[in-house]
Amino acid sequence: MKRYGYDTSSKKCKSFIYGGCGGNDNNFETLAECRETCKDNSSEDESIPDACLLPSEVGPCKGKQNRFYFDQKANTCMPFVFGGCGGNGNNFVTEAKCLETCTKPSAPEENEDICSLPIKAGPCKAMLKRFAYDENKKKCVEFSYGGCQGNKNNFESMKDCTFKCEQRQPKPEPEAKCSKPIETGPCNAKIKRFAYDTKKEKCVEFYYGGCKGNENNFETMEDCTWTCEQRQAKPEPEKGPCSQPIKVGPCNAMMKRFAYDNKKGKCVEFYYGGCKGNQNNFQSMEDCTWTCEQRLARPYALQNECSQPIEAGPCNAKIKRYAYDNDKEKCVEFYYGGCKGNENNFETMEDCTFKCEERQPKPEPEEVKCSQPIEAGPCNAKIKRFAYDNKKGKCVEFYYGGCKGNENNFETMEDCTWTCEQRLPTPDPEQVKCSQPIEAGPCNARIIRFAYDNRRGKCVEFTYGGCKGNENNFETMEDCTWTCEQRKPDPEPEQDLCSQPITAGPCMAAIPRYGYDSRRGKCVKFLYGGCRGNDNRFLTRSECEQTCMGGATDPEVEGGEGRLCLATKHDWVILLKAASTGNLTFEVSRSPCGQLPDNHNDRCSQPIRTGPCRAAFRR
Asked: BPTI/Kunitz inhibitor domain spans which residues (predicted)?
């Protein structure tokens, strides 16, 4: 039976289990009754909700849900398994929420400066990222808060800490701090630190003993440079948190965080796994922006990194790295020995390219970069990239293998468009439209449309399926003629395409087409491979006959010998003689068909003759 009693040692009311008989009067049914009777005015309890004083309760259900409750004895939050129903208010989904609800930092003395309080993690075991003012360093620093107790020198963001403490502290002149000698101090620790060397007029690394010393002592090169070299070049961020890679870490939490992306030059959102990672990890976009974007200037790395020679170093490891080759004016792969060497050493081709190649003077894009073929490269990665397609006259998406390839390779469509499309002469869109092949499309509608036939040099009618197809598709003959014929040069004489041999091409498709067989004097069906070939290729037999035969007349025969007029284009006539033996011979005449002798028999009245040859033509 749950009851409440006043504990004289802790001077507050606590719950206990009453056996049901005996006992004494220090036994109350409710916490409120106990507090009212015994004058429990604990300042700690006033700041802690009643729910936090309750014991953990699994509840009557049989579920297994991981929860946290506040343990008054341990003064921290502890895990327990909740059944899923019932229970009480001392039940939290996360440890952080439990600590936030049930623990409060101790209040400072009246008029006490919170920025002068020592940094206290507190006795609890949470690892909450917080910021506090360090009196020794005279600046705000990050620390891990345990989640309970501690003090008011505890801020959720660097911005809050800086606003509250740093802006109100009298800051020493940089010269005063930076002009002090470098002092390791009398202790024996070996802590890597940085200090301003007045002789070298730059910040250098040194090892701090761990005690005493002076203010010319900085945790990072950036802090030293920022403080002491303000009149020199801006600090290099390569060793600071803002230039570190974005690391999720090996754990599986999904914690929304923010980090500085060096390639994009701005802070971005990412999900932190919850462990390991690095310092490029901020709880808010404001912290990231304030720390990285406003304080760090992009370094001009060419003098320091990209212009250095490629050095493998004296060690014997074989670590694949990338460096900028000043002779070739591009990043190349090399094997790093594992020690020494120099800063012209990058873990990925992308890092090298970003640091070095993109800052070199670029050649004219239309002559070099944009005119190169699209190359995925020999590696097997699938990295989404963009390149300029010279055939299509525009930038397209492709998948980059991750190595080699060429310069026609952009990370964004915007980069590709800006580099190639806006600087390259664009073709006349009408010319592009009219030069496309006539396409009915895959659908089954039968819509009369008009298109420009490049082989015939004029607009023709065709039947459109109703979907897909291309831009060479006009609703009226007038639109087609005005758009295409008035802008096109005269087509090549049709005699040229009809005299070309019928060619299937090297590809393996089997597309039914028709071509003019000049030896046989008629249009025949053949299977087109799908690529190359020539212009002697038509979609239909009638189109072939209209183009190459000009509407052939009926055959003419006389006695045992007949003549068939096969073409009348350009006033030339090809006469096909049918000898009585069945053999075929050709005769070319300048005379048109209409001038041929009129003494002929009807073709259909002639007997069927196979002739003496052994060919097997399907008839």
From this structure: 1-38, 52-102, 115-165, 178-228, 242-292, 306-356, 370-420, 434-484, 498-548
Is the sign of the CA dihedral 604, 608, 614, 615 positive or negative? Answer: positive
In this predicted structure, which of 98-102, 130-134, 252-256, 428-432 has the lowest mean pLDDT? 428-432
Q: What is the pLDDT of residue 382?
A: 86
Q: Domain segments of the chain: what residues? A: 2-102, 114-168, 174-235, 241-293, 302-359, 430-491, 492-551, 554-619
Domain at 492-551, CATH from 3.40.50.620, 3.40.50.300, 1.20.58.2140, 4.10.410.10? 4.10.410.10
DSSP run (H or E) holding 225: helix 221-228
Report the distance separating Cα 258 and Cα 278, nearest Å: 12
Q: What is the pTM of this model?
A: 0.21
Average pLDDT over residues 81-96: 88
Encoded tokens for 198:
């007045």
Give 324 or 588, the one with higher predicted confidence. Answer: 324
| Tens-place pLDDT, residues 64-74 | 899 989 888 77
Domain 114-168 shares a fold with domain 302-359: yes
Q: Return the structure tokens found at 187.
A: 């202790």
DSSP string, 547-598: HHTSSPPPPEEETTEEEEE---GGG-EEEEEE-TTS-EEEEEESS-GGGS-S
Question: What is the second-level CATH architecture of the domain 241-293?
Answer: Irregular (4.10)
Instruction: Give me the phi and psi of 104, to 5 degrees please.
Output: -135, 140
Is the per-residue pLDDT at 237 higher than 50?
no
E strands present in 394-457 = 394-400, 447-453
Structure tokens given for 140: 């705000």
